[in-house]
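Quiz preparation item.
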């Protein structure tokens, strides 16, 4: 589904990702963990073609197509979706407007307003957000937790095949975290998308069990393994995976 090969990424004249390799099979859950500042969010941004990041070398292949030159919009149309760490507000564009346009562009058909409203209302209820959010400007005037739920409303409506979760727990209180994670779990059960989880909180794995966990350190994956790695991280922290000390965990 997704193949990242020898990816070197630069921002502001600095190498942030350094010959990164990553493979994710269709329908699998892959996690990337690592301390602050090692390049986790950069992976998310470069996957969606944030213009602040330049690919110096390497390829991103999505469903057998090299997408290095694809625009963000084209990538979204292919089914890629990012739930970002800090979703930005877009003043002047209502949720419903954006979703109707995106759905029409994806399916090539006009959206049936009645079924659209029925579906989106049910989603708001499940996510415990007011149905008036449907007509609010995207994330405008919303708290961090509300923004995450609002983006999750987009996810349920757009039904992406490949989901990137960047620090999904940040900005969420205990109750909102449960609602968001149960909703993602339900989505995974129903549609079996491919998921890339970026997190340093292993609690996320109680809801979405990764098939593989990768540890990132300064732009490179230094260790890959199963859920067992999460236990080591909980007990010993990321220090256990510093490049020079990796051999002890082989
Ligand atoms: P993480 O998500 O793992 O905490 P980031 O991917 O946000 O890390 O950042 C990795 C490193 O790259 C940090 O040192 C950060 O300051 C730097 N960085 C990220 N984006 C930019 C940018 N647009 N311009 C300059 N430096 C950046
Ligand atoms: Mg980050």
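Solution:
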């Amino acid at each position: 589904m997704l193949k990242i090969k020898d990816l070197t990424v630069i921002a502001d004249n600095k190498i942030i990702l350094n010959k990164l390799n990553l493979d994710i099979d269709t329908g699998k859950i892959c996690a990337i963990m690592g301390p602050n500042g090692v390049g986790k969010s950069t992976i998310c941004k470069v996957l969606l073609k944030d213009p602040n990041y330049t690919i110096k070398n390497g390829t991103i292949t999505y469903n057998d197509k090299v997408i290095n030159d694809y625009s963000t919009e084209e990538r979204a149309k292919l089914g890629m979706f990012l739930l970002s760490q800090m979703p930005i507000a877009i003043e002047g564009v209502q949720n419903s407007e954006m979703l109707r346009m995106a759905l029409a562009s994806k399916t090539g058909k006009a959206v049936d307003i009645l079924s659209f409203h029925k579906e989106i209302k049910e989603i708001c209820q499940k996510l415990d957000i007011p149905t008036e959010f449907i007509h609010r400007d995207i994330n405008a005037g919303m708290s961090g937790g509300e923004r995450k739920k609002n983006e999750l409303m987009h996810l349920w409506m757009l039904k992406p095949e490949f989901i990137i979760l960047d620090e999904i727990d940040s900005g969420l209180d205990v109750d909102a975290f449960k609602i968001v994670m149960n909703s993602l779990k339900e989505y995974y059960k129903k549609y079996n998308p491919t998921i890339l989880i970026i997190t340093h909180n292993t609690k996320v794995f109680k809801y979405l069990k990764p098939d593989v966990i990768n540890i990132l350190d300064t732009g490179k994956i230094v260790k890959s393994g199963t859920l067992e790695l999460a236990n080591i991280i909980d007990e010993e922290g990321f220090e256990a995976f510093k490049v020079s000390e990796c051999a002890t965990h082989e």
